[in-house]
Amino acid sequence: MYCSPRFLAGIASVFAVAAVPQGAPAATFTNLYNFGAQGGTEDANNPYAGVILDSAGNLYGTTYGGGTEGLGTVYEMSPPAGGQTAWTETILYSFFTNRADGVAPTGRLVFGPGGILYGTTSRSGGTGSNGYGTVFALTPPATLGASWTETTLHVFTQADGDGGLPEAGLAIDGGGTLYGTTNRGGVFKKKSSGFGTVFSLSPPAGGIGSWTETILYTFSNTARDGISPQSDVLLSNGALYGTTPYCSDKLSCSGTVFQLTGSGAAWTESVILALPSNGDKGATPFGSLSTDASGALYGTTSLGTGTAFRLAPPAAGQTRWTQSVLAKFGSDKDGGPQGGLLPGPGGVLFGTLTYGAKKAQGSVFELMPTGSGPWTQTVLHSFPSKPAGAGSFPVGDLVADASGNLYGVTEVGGQYGVGTVFEITP
């Protein structure tokens, strides 16, 4: 079974949970679905990315295991019909060992026009060593209940400057152009290739023909730069923002936040935060970024002292972004966040920890602003080590519906040991 690199990295770091404030209201936790329930290994197995939500309340996600050949799936979770209580899982697509197809998707999906789902696979199908991943589209059927149609939009080659191994999801702009990152690949310069890219994929004019890939930026080990991006990019006010968990040999740090500005094929990258190798501001940001109305960025760090942080944009006439650490997740037996932060009403933030205190196997937390100093952390749910059927190791980003209910996934655990989908009502 394929194991996601970020999960393996997370296993290597164990940290101690902040206490639940006295008198905090209890959240309601519901295990919506145990992967493996339908057809065992042919069911969706082992999600690594969070779900997305449509207007009807259906959830959509990917798994890097399971499916017809055990190479990953795209699935839908439908809420209970009237008078029922159980959610219904539908496998929309199973990935196959066809060289034009991808396998092992670990990124989050994104909606396009007409309800089309876009995503990435971290590897390509077929045999051999050139399985560097794909971008795909999944088109809903014209007739309810018919099969969805999968189309491979781009196959990464990690040759001639192309990227390879996309482990994150995609962003989409108003014109339907997709944006993403690859963990490897890029333009060869002074033996510094292979450290990742930011790319765009533009739809064909009139919807007929091939999509056009453009490499917007190549990360280099010979520049003062981050390397090996593994998170979604955030598209905000015409700029792209993202994180890298590692730094080049020329920039001594433990991960970066970067900004790309430009258009077409002309983009300029800036490192707006380089996390120090030693210190209490966190290290190794694997999660994606979110933003608020002021343009501030919110993110997490996974290793060292796991943190949640805010990056305030530069004041007028200035260029420096200002980092504030909102919460620290300890240094004993708590897990650093692997996903990003979800903004909620009143400025609160929601997220997940991979591990937890007292041998718990992850938690969902809420951060509430206090006006000054560290934010107040409330643990909404802690995943127990026993019984294992409750799910273990929440991963990916959370999503919220119009009523404020939170939805997420665990990578493993559950009744069949291969992950769950859960709901939390704060």
Secondary structure category: mainly beta
The low-confidence runs, each spanning 5 or more residues with pLDDT under 50, are 7-24
Supply the CATH architecture: 7 Propeller
Sheet having the most strands:
4 strands, antiparallel
Which fold does the CATH topology refer to? Methylamine Dehydrogenase, Chain H
Q: State the helicity in percent bands.
A: under 10%
% residues in beta strands: 35-45%
Oligomer: single chain
Tell me the name of the CATH homologous superfamily: YVTN repeat-like/Quinoprotein amine dehydrogenase
Which sequence of strands runs across the widest sheet? 1-36-35-34
Mean pLDDT across every amino acid position:
87
- What is the CATH class? Mainly Beta
Q: Tally the structural domains.
A: 1
Specify the overall morphology. globular
How many E strands? 36
Number of helices: 1
Précis, in short:
With 426 residues, this protein is mostly beta strands. 2% of the residues lie in helices and 40% in strands.
